[in-house]
């Protein structure tokens, strides 16, 4: 059976049992599963999430499901773009996707009512539900992160995040991923899901990824396709307004602050000037989403905006949202991406050819020394890193004053067998995953021989390598 991505394209799965079995089989083989939930009509923003997922796991699952419980009866559920064949083509071209989960319905159908009393109960429940699924579903269980749902979009869409949290909870239970990726354009949604996963003890790492923008700055959204002719140019006012607010904060001196209402009024004015009808503009704490009164350059705040534009469907509007982190270091996703780049650069600098060049330069500097020496007393990577000479003849258990004064460095090694029998975790980059193993042998030079639990393979790990402490943890 094909366990990873197939050249023929991703496996198409439509029922929950098959999806759960697919995921469990991969995880049983120590393959990490990354999950990208979508409502279809895929664009470059979605594909950027897929690329982030491929960096984090061997198995990538994408779901396509237009969730009716996050649409009010007056919203664009029926008009929401659906193009499954085109979406599958894009995922196949992107490559690296193992499965696409496309359920037909994730909510219990309203088909078990047979008495008059039950029928009236059904109608009452439908009135209380007030979503696009109300007339067709018997669903009674909902997930809600109350405090995070109330501000921003929750003011005008009171049932929206309840529907989002519920469907994502269902998808997490079905797909059983190790990591799930969401775009930061829907920042409030991201915080709701992160809170839900933490408080309901899902074994899922919920990761936010930076907003993907087209060249002119418009945030990618499936709803962009619903804009009437000429409205897209008006929608550019959203990013323009957010950028102006960011410039105001960047121009502050350390310790200065600006009123949140000043920045919100600036954003509102620019969006309206470009032709948008503002739903809300608000400044909140990026973690709690509580409204803030002032903004400082050194403290992170989130300014969020929602605005309406004319739809290509007669008499309807398209609601677009966007946000920007002001102050601090940019969005959390951007900060994580930058840290990842730094880590990769550090690994590159510690690569073998780099250290060998360092060794060659070090040897050239030591020609002045009368006595021969080598790097046998210390691992050459360690010697290169310390940039100090190592004398083979001096192999003491500790550094002596004479050795230090003469410019020679001696190495103290733990006695053989110090770590034998201990268990440890080792971090691999490709894939980026921790593997558990047991130390079965240790050399005087600090090289461990380990046996991995997953497949019984033996390998050697050098404790002298610069990244040993960050990639190997004793249990």
TrEMBL record:
Name a Pfam family for this protein: Pantoate_ligase
What sort of enzyme, by top EC class, is this? Answer: ligase
**Under which EC number(s) is this enzyme classified?**
6.3.2.1
MF terms in GO: ATP binding; pantoate-beta-alanine ligase activity
Asked whether the keyword Electron transport is assigned, the reply is no
Tell me which stretches of the chain form a coiled coil.
335-365
Q: Which GO terms describe its biological process?
A: pantothenate biosynthetic process
The record ties this protein, via InterPro entries, to: Pantoate_ligase, Pantoate_ligase_C, Rossmann-like_a/b/a_fold
Compositionally skewed regions (Acidic residues) per UniProt? 120-131
Q: Which UniProt keywords apply?
A: ATP-binding, Coiled coil, Ligase, Nucleotide-binding, Pantothenate biosynthesis
The region called Disordered is annotated at 107-136
What catalytic activity does the UniProt entry give for this protein? (R)-pantoate + beta-alanine + ATP = (R)-pantothenate + AMP + diphosphate + H(+)
| CDD domains in the cross-refs | PanC
According to its UniProt record, in which pathway does this protein act?
Cofactor biosynthesis; (R)-pantothenate biosynthesis; (R)-pantothenate from (R)-pantoate and beta-alanine: step 1/1
Q: Which GO terms describe its cellular component?
A: cytosol
Similarity comment text for this entry: Belongs to the pantothenate synthetase family.
Report the protein name in the record.
Answer: Pantoate--beta-alanine ligase
Q: Which organism is it from?
A: Chloropicon roscoffensis
């Amino acid at each position: 059976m094909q366990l990873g991505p197939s050249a023929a394209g991703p496996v198409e799965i439509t029922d929950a049992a098959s999806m759960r079995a697919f995921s469990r089989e991969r995880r049983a083989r120590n393959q990490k599963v990354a999950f990208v939930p979508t409502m279809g009509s895929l664009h470059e923003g979605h594909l950027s999430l897929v690329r982030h997922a491929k960096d984090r796991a061997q198995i990538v699952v994408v779901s396509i499901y237009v969730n009716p419980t996050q649409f009010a009866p007056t919203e664009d559920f029926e008009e929401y773009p659906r193009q499954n064949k085109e979406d599958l083509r894009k995922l196949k071209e992107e490559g690296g996707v193992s499965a696409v989960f496309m359920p037909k319905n994730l909510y219990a159908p309203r088909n078990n009512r047979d008495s008059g009393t039950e029928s009236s109960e059904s109608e009452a429940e439908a009135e209380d539900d007030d979503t696009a699924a109300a007339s067709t579903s018997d669903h009674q269980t909902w997930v809600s992160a109350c405090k995070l749902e109330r501000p921003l979009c929750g003011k005008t869409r009171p049932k929206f995040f309840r529907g989002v949290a519920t469907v994502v909870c269902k998808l997490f239970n079905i797909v059983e991923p190790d990591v799930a990726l969401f775009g930061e354009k829907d920042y409030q949604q991201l915080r709701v899901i992160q809170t839900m996963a933490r408080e309901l003890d899902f074994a899922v790492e919920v990761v936010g990824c930076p907003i993907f923008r087209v060249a002119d700055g418009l945030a990618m959204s499936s709803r962009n396709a619903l804009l009437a002719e000429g409205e897209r140019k008006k929608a550019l006012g959203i990013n323009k307004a957010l950028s102006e607010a960011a410039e105001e904060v960047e121009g502050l001196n350390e310790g200065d602050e600006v009123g949140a209402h000043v920045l919100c009024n600036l954003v509102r004015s620019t969006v309206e000037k470009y032709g948008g009808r503002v739903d809300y503009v608000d400044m909140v704490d990026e973690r709690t989403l509580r409204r803030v009164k002032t903004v400082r350059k050194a403290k992170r705040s989130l300014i969020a905006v929602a605005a309406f534009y004319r739809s290509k469907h007669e008499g309807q509007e398209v609601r677009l949202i966007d946000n920007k982190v002001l102050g601090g270091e940019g969005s959390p996703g951007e900060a994580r991406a930058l840290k990842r780049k730094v880590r990769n650069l550090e690994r590159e600098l510690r690569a073998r050819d780099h250290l060998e060049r360092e060794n060659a330069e070090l040897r050239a500097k030591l020609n002045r020394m009368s006595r021969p020496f080598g790097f046998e007393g210390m691992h050459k990577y360690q010697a290169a890193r310390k940039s100090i000479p190592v004398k083979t003849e001096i192999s003491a258990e500790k550094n002596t004053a004479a050795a230090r004064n003469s410019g020679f460095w001696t190495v103290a090694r733990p006695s053989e067998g110090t770590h034998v029998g201990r268990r440890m975790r080792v971090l691999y980059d490709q894939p980026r995953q921790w593997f558990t193993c047991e130390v079965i042998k240790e050399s005087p030079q600090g090289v461990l021989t380990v046996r991995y639990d997953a497949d019984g393979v033996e390998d050697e790990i050098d404790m002298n390598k610069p990244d040993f402490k960050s990639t190997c943890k004793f249990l």
